[in-house]
Specification:
homodimer; 3-stranded antiparallel β-sheet; alpha+beta; 4 strands
């Protein structure tokens, strides 16, 4: 999750056309891959207000270990690509899915 | 998204067994409903570190307006139920889904 700030840079074209397709190409071949969602922050709770995050990406895997197995071999390439679309330091967290429909 | 803090209260049993099933029951009947994910924050980027959010819920609808149409008739019931599981003020934002697989 990329926190929004007034002077932060985020190139959605590069992110959606280059960075995320490459990330998905590399990570989705792992047998634990279950899905991915890439989202642009549109507003806060009040329509027209600023969202807390300019963008979010959610990868779903069978386990946190499966994600690490898929990601770590490509971490340097994918993290090294980040300056090409943003100067924001993302907030990263691992979640356990409790309900999914 | 419910920010984690040391003294915050969050009752996952109530949230997962009562609050979210009722929310899903009420919102999923709208024709714009596409899905929902309820998640527990397990760790930050570093295994064993604290996640930024203790819990997250993502509702997916065809449009932001469809979500509001589904949610607003039940806002008082659902928001009124929040003190039964938490004293955290959630961070709410509306996202546009750019990639979904």
């Amino acid at each position: 999750m990329y926190p929004k700030s007034a002077d932060a840079r985020f190139d959605f074209r590069y992110y959606v056309d280059k960075h995320m397709p490459r990330s998905i190409e590399l990570l989705s071949v792992h047998p634990g891959f279950r899905g991915v969602s890439v989202e642009r922050g549109a507003a806060g709770a009040v329509p027209g207000s600023e969202p807390a995050y300019v963008a979010m990406c959610h990868f779903t895997f069978t386990t946190a270990d499966a994600f690490l197995e898929a990601f770590l071999p490509h971490a340097s390439e994918l993290q090294g690509d980040m300056p090409n679309y943003t100067d924001i330091v993302p907030t990263i967290q691992v979640n356990e899915v409790l309900i999914s429909r």
